Amino acid sequence: MPATFVLNAMTSDEVATVGLAGDIDLTVEPLLQALLARALAAHQPPRVDVDLTGLRSIDSFALSVLMAADRYARDTGGWMSVTGVDAPVRALLAERGLDRVLDLRPSGVLLFPC
């Protein structure tokens, strides 16, 4: 059975939001890269929220795309937060040490750093 996924993006005056839901794997990587590139370019410096509400699984390829986006945002004076992080996703990220690198927040918690 093929993986099912939902990717979406929207931009406001404050922040660009990319939503990931379902099963995110290698087949989705090019779409994810394109959405994140657009989100990172929407504001200068970048202000991006990646919403993982409804995410069931994510593979190492997609995680590397998220890490690259986070690194780019920080290197250019911006930020990227990851919201909608439930317990299973947080455990997956912690297993890979990404909970210490990414700015993880539960659903509905988005802060605008100064």
Write the layout of secondary structure elements.
Elements (H helix, E strand, L loop, with lengths): L4 E7 L4 E9 L4 H14 L4 E5 L3 E4 L1 H16 L3 E5 L3 H9 L7 E2 L10
Parallel strand pairs: 2-3, 2-4, 3-5, 5-6
Antiparallel strand pairs: 1-2
Helix pairs in contact: 1-2
Protein name: Anti-sigma factor antagonist
Pfam families: STAS_2 (PF13466)
InterPro entries: Anti-sigma_ant, MlaB-like_STAS, STAS_dom, STAS_dom_sf
Instruction: Describe the global form.
Output: globular
Which regions contain 5 or more consecutive residues with pLDDT less than 50?
Answer: none
The CATH homologous superfamily is termed: STAS domain
CATH class, anyone? Answer: Alpha Beta
Structural class: alpha/beta
Helicity, as a percent range: 25-40%
Main sheet specs: 6 strands, mixed
What proportion strand? 25-35%
Determine the mean pLDDT: 89
Tally of separate helices: 3
- How many beta-strand segments? 6
- Spatial separation of the terminal alpha carbons: 45 Å
Pfam families: STAS_2 (PF13466)
Family: Belongs to the anti-sigma-factor antagonist family.
Organism: Nonomuraea dietziae
InterPro entries: Anti-sigma_ant, MlaB-like_STAS, STAS_dom, STAS_dom_sf
Structural notes for this entry:
With 114 residues, this protein is an alpha/beta fold. The chain has one domain (5-104): 2-Layer Sandwich (Transcription Regulator spoIIAA), CATH 3.30.750. It is built from three helices and six strands, in the order ββαββαβαβ. The protein has helices at 29-42, 60-75, 87-95; strands at 5-11, 16-24, 47-51, 55-58, 79-83, 103-104. Strands 1, 2, 3, 4, 5 and 6 form a six-stranded mixed sheet that branches. Helix 3 (87-95) links the parallel strand 5 (79-83) and strand 6. Helix 1 (29-42) runs parallel beside helix 2 (60-75). The longest helix has 16 residues, at 60-75. The chain is globular, with a radius of gyration of 13 Å. The relative contact order is 0.18. The mean pLDDT is 89. GO terms for molecular function: anti-sigma factor antagonist activity. It comes from Nonomuraea dietziae. This is Anti-sigma factor antagonist.
